[in-house]
Amino acid sequence: MRTDTGHVFKLTDYKPTDFVVERIDLTFELDPKATMVVSRVILHRREGVGTDVPLVLDGDELTLDSLLIDGMEIDASLYDATPDSLTIRDLPESAPFEITVTTTLSPETNTKLMGLYRTNGVYCTQCESEGFRRITYFYDRPDVLAVYTVTIIASKDETKQLLSNGNFLGGGNYDEGRHFAAWFDPHPKPSYLFALVGGDLGLVEDTFTTMSGREVALKIYVEHGKEPRAAYAMDALKRSMKWDEEMFGREYDLDIFQIVAVSDFNMGAMENKGLNVFNDKYVLADPETATDADYANIEAIIAHEYFHNWTGNRITCRDWFQLCLKEGLTVYRDHAFSADQRSAPVKRIAEIRLLKAHQFPEDAGPLAHPVRPETYREINNFYTATVYEKGSEVVRMIRTILGADAFRKGMDLYFERHDGDAATIEDFIACFAEASGRDLKQFALWYSQAGTPSVSVSSEWNDTKKTFKVTLEQSLAPTPGQSRKALMHIPLAYGLILPDGSEFEGQPTGGEASGGVIHLTKRKQTFTFSDVPGRPVVSINRGFSAPVNIAMEQSPEDLAHISRHESDGVARWQALNDYATRHLVAASRLARDGRNLMPAGDLADVLIATAKDETLEPAFRAQALALPAESDIAREIGSNIDPDAIHTAREAVLAEVARAGQDVFTTLAASAAKGAYSPDATAAGQRALAGVSMSYASIAEAAADRAKAAFDAADNMTVLAQALQVLAHQFPGADETQDALESFKSRYAENPLVLDKWYSTQAMAPGSSTCDRVEELLASPDFDHTNPNRVRALIGAFTAGNPTGFNRADGAGYRLLARQVVEIDGRNPQLAARLLTAMRSWRSLEPGRQEQARLALLSIRDAGKLSADVSDIVERMLAA
Ligand SMILES: [Zn+2]
To answer: Ligand 1 center to residue 324 CA distance, Å?
Structure first.
């Protein structure tokens, strides 16, 4: 384990390497316990670097078998090899030289799933961010780009496919019972994009003809027998390739594009050049085993990894501080793709929900960091919602500020100017500034300032003068390491909705405003609209144009006016969601104080009206009917949080809406699409509306039989999983629920991905007894503690998706997580650290729970030898 050294890496310390890598040739002789790796690297000393400066290469848990310089052994006094580094002295002044490094690895015992490991008989690598140094000593950093040639030798019987990046050079018999394959990747790349796969896998093949007419072979490798379940992923890949050509002018650049699906994987997927490695969860789907959400995730992640070929691979990051350069931008691109493939407003609503659920709490807690961090102790802990999701929002704001045309020009310039580079955020922003002629200096603060800005909005209507004034004031609370903040450039899309429901078109004075966007650049600005025919209602931050918190006193009548007349579907949902949130926050406070809740009559009326409004698409209606989650309500309350009170209040509102709209929900519950299953967005939207309606109808009836009947009749996983969830969450003690859980488990005993749903559904059942159930499941012999998907399905779902169960008042949930984190840290530090982030909002809890959470965190801190990953998270969470 790489234990914590406490070393802090700083952005300002960046310095290029002393030696320049020209090319690298790797040879692997695969063996489960003793894989031999021979790495031949040609380097030269960088100009201006003194001859006394040694070559220092990175390692992690490595043992050097042998070292040659230009094919010769050198005196042992000229180098030092430790598990973490290889230092070689006395190297040539300027001439290129070759080092040959031999190391031996044990893929079978590599439980960290970083570097080269073996899963279900398949050899596989994961090198981002610092896994390559677990394979051989190298400059394992993203600004060292080299051309790779890879030769793989392995047993013919066990390891039929031998895959690596780039184009296939050749292969054949090697020696007794072994064969080999050689690959050449002509595109210089950093080591984190290196990949190797060896295994006996099933293959799905297709081709894609690029816009310049080149034919690319497409190959998806999965476990034997699972080939039919890769068809949707292949379809999504072809659509992604076409879309990137049409929208960004980006063409694929190798003869072959390969995807391998493996079952033990720490991340979702990895964009290794020409050879993406995927968690099989994001490749395999058929109607019987995958839900609509699974299909949508597969489409998005296949696209995301493919899009990295340009944003990440052709143009990579100079250092890991620039991670958002590839991730934020690529998330932006995959969002735009999904919006085009599906309903754009529904997609945007889902993005806003995700951002608020995951990124806003991060920004408000002890783990807050800028989109581009300036320091880190463990880079693995920065694959966060802030870097990915907020990073994407920042790119989206650039587009909002510049407009579609200038944005595209800026992207074109970026691709043209930086192809083949390891670039920075400054390089990226400069392209947009240059393409548009706009100064983006103040805007660039979005990359360096952590925290979610707040904008308070007030308005004033003058009926005599017919003027309407909107005053905006921005603020940004301190975050760890940043006590003082500068003023931001916040682009706020808006609309003024007149009493008759039409929109006021006039432009305001008082600051920059154009194309329906107000640019807030000062602390406080007043925008004045003149000649307004009647008192308008302002709809601000339309479409969530900026990731900020808006504080605005708006009457329920005004919010209802917006939700009725807003032409923008997202803004309409925002108004409805604000309305519901406000009610739920007030009700939660009453519940916490033990007082009677106020009726939700008006809110229920609006929701039911939306449910039956046939002019709205079903997916939108489903989103509107899904009340803000308990975690959303907690976030709005902000401090002294009592998760039980929030649950009580929310359940009461659900019950009231359910009873008031029982007829509507009963009809809609029966309206699911008939005929053969199709994963398209329209059919998925119909199932979503039917599913949420079934949940409301069951609540109104206070009986499990409707959900049980749906479970028994289900002919696809979406409906089956919806029904199981209603049973397990609404009727935990019912016989129907026990029957359904047992039948589900036995039916899918042989399908780990589906069985994961069985674990998550139970882990997310609200209430204090779930903690005991999770302990029971953890202790059962069929629980696979080494599979990250399974661990996340149970522990991750419980801690991140079950506010009442995890935050049990006696602290049992926190203690469970603490024990698991320490145990998992021993084999898989990345997974352990990720699970621990579920406690990031602990300081906003009421005092009793806060104390229990603190004790659990201390128990981790004092548990002894911790990895750098877990130690970093626990220290930051405990820091005052
Ligand atoms: Zn990515």
So the answer is: 9
